[in-house]
Amino acid sequence: MLEIEGLNCYYGKIEAVRNLSLKVEKGQLVTLIGANGAGKSTTLKSISGILPASSGRILFEGEDITKASARTILDLGIAHCPEGRRVFPYMSVQENLDMGCFRRSDPKQIESDLEGIFDRFPILKERRLQMAGTLSGGEQQMLAIGRALMSRPKFVLFDEPSLGLAPNLVKTTFDIISEIRDQDVTVLLVEQNAYAALALCDHAYLLESGEVTLQGTGEELKGNDYVREAYLGG
Amino acid sequence: MAEFLQHILNAIVLGGTYALLGIGLTLIFGIMKVVNFTHGELYSFGAYMIFMFSAMLGLNFFLAIILSMVLGVLLGGIIEFALLRPLRGANIDTTMLVMIGAWIVMQNLEQLSWGGVAKSINHPFPLDPLVIGEVSVSWIRVFVFFFAVILIIGSYYLINNTKLGKSMRATFQDRDIAALMGVNINRVYTATFALGSGLAATAGALLGPVFVVTPTMGDMAALKAFAIVILGGLGSIAGATIGGFILALAEEMGAGYISSGYRDAMGFILIILVLIFRPTGLFALKERYG
Predict the structure, then answer these.
(1) Which residue of A has its CA nearest to B170?
(2) pLDDT digit string, tens, across residues A196-225
(3) B138 near A CB under 8 A
(4) What gap in Å lies between CA B81 and CA B62, rounded to an integer?
(5) Which of B64, B180, B60, B72 is nearest to B124 (CA)?
(6) B38: domain range?
(7) ipTM at complex level
(8) In Å, how far are A2, A66, B97, B194 from A62, measured between CA atoms?
(9) Which pTM does this prediction carry?
(10) Residues of B with CB below 8 A from A69's CB?
(11) Distance from CA of A219 to the nearest CA of B (A)
(12) Residues of A numbered 101-130 whose beta carbons fall under 8 angstroms of chain B's beta carbons: which are they?
């Protein structure tokens, strides 16, 4: 479904991603693990079109989206749930969700999708008219996920969804992500919490200083001595 | 007491147009991060347009105001498209210099086209003032006030209740994420600049008939607009509205009780006080970076 070939990305003059290639099959949950600054977020940003790639190719369902705008990529069915949640702080919960379906014009479907989000996250319904900036971190994460789902994506990029959340919420977040995959939405998940991500995924890539150094199924990476030593705490 | 009430009334009437100027600038400043030095020139452009349509061509006064508004919006759109769009992502200093250049060019074009002599514009309102108890106000000022209030309400509605307004607020709060949601950032910028410029031109078209029209009238208007934005806080329409009325009140009181020579100084005294005691402005929204 998504195929990246020889991607290079620069942040100013710093090369953040070097010759990265990866593949995500339809219906899979694929994870990118790696340390801070390994280039995981950069990869997601270049997929969703907010950070242009300097070379390489990104194909989505066979279509070249390397140079496409964020808007075109969204229209093709890719949603990006960004690192740090990034909800619009001075907009209500409802308005944040409205922004999620900014490009859609099917009011009936939107209404039923909204009900779906509220069923999944009842707290958002309760806080519907509250400013998103006043929500707790966990609630903001739910809102960010809900906002991403409001575009009816075929493919969702999650960037560090568990970052800064209390342990019980971390589990909830991963449960939700695997539910999303079970509803036939393909997921590319970036995580520092390698243990949880590897337990969840169909396939995993290890990223180090902008390069893929290891890949395999979650089990394979979990069993790898180097990964255990460096990323799973021995 | 009558004198005091008269100052309050004058301040309210003037505050409406100040608020228009401030809202226009705070939108542009807040959403686009462009220090818009042409704002005052859009104000004088509006004033010259109503002079042209109403005094020269003899069109209906109200129609002339509407035409000035529309042309202000158009001119704003053109400036954004021709000058700012190619500079997207450029250093803020570069953009600032280009806008200063545009300001000088526009002011001199006005002087070239209309000459340096002050123009006055007749209006269809009775010259006898409206007297309420011990205070009085001219009918043109009453009209200007209500017209401004309608536009302020319209701006609130646009920003809070329309899809364009929502995309403008989203862009202000987090530009990258707004783009991720599918907002066309370029379109939001053009719309913002056109709207802000239209409000400035309308303020000029409304005050042109109250005062006189000169090529340099925009300079003081721009400085006042900046004062209002600093008072109200970046990107806050409510702040700009209240800021506009506070500035008008300070000017009226300063002129009335200290000396009329200090009228224009009051705004700057206010800026200094705000910058010392509450540098983010009275009603600032925090934007996010990164």
Answers:
(1) A88
(2) 899 999 999 999 888 899 999 999 999 898
(3) no
(4) 29
(5) B60
(6) 21-121+129-222
(7) 0.91
(8) 8, 12, 46, 40
(9) 0.89
(10) 179
(11) 33
(12) 102-103
